[in-house]
Amino acid sequence: MAPYVASLTTVNTPHRGCEFADYLLEKIGPAQQNMVAKAYNSTLSRLGDTCPDFLGAVEDLKADACKKRNAELFEAEQKIAPDVYVQSIGSCLKKPSGGRFPLNLSNRFVRHFDGANDGLVGRNSFEWGHSFIWLEASGMRGLSHGDMIDLNRENFQGFDVREFYVQLVSDLKNRGF
How far is 132 from 31, CA to CA, in rounded Å? Predict the structure, then answer.
């Protein structure tokens, strides 16, 4: 497929996992896990998810699961033609109130284990490929995982997500991809 691929760009992807996910699944008992999952799954259902699986998603974020995916990605990356540009992007939610549910809740926990994060993934987990773009919006709000995928369809001072992606594609074009 390499002749048909200009670049591979990952956005706020947990390449190295989330220590918070490991803690949640290893230290909190099944009853508490199910209570947290029920709350998240209920909210996600109200938001339109027809089959929410909070615990499955958290399991996928564990370091071991990401290490396995990394091995697969590394193997895949070795098969990528040299002219395919691989880059990663990460962002930082500066304070919990800057994000919407559930990222406003998880930001504090993830920060405790993983440091600066987007409400889900810590900075050290994002970097992959030839280059890494770290985004921090001006002001105190920051950029959540939801902001980067334009989940809430909102504009805010200091960052225009749609314009960011236009510029990202423009940069790729300027690089000859």
Answer: 39
Three-state SS for 142? strand
Residue for token digits 């810590």? 122
| 61-93 residue pLDDT tens | 888 888 887 777 666 666 666 778 889 999 999
Token digits of residue 129: 């490929």
Output Rg (C-alpha) for the chain, integer angstroms. Answer: 17
pLDDT, the chain, mean: 86
Contact 16, 119 (CB under 8 A): no
Query: What's the whole-model pTM score?
Result: 0.78
Structure tokens at 107: 């930001």
Q: What are phi and psi of 174, to 5 degrees?
A: -65, -25
Question: What would the two tokens of residue 106 be?
Answer: 């998880």
Stretch (H or E) spanning 132: strand 131-135
Please give the single-letter amino acid code of residue 141: R
Residue 90, token pair as written in the block: 């990460």
pLDDT tens digits, residue range 18-38? 888 888 788 889 999 999 899
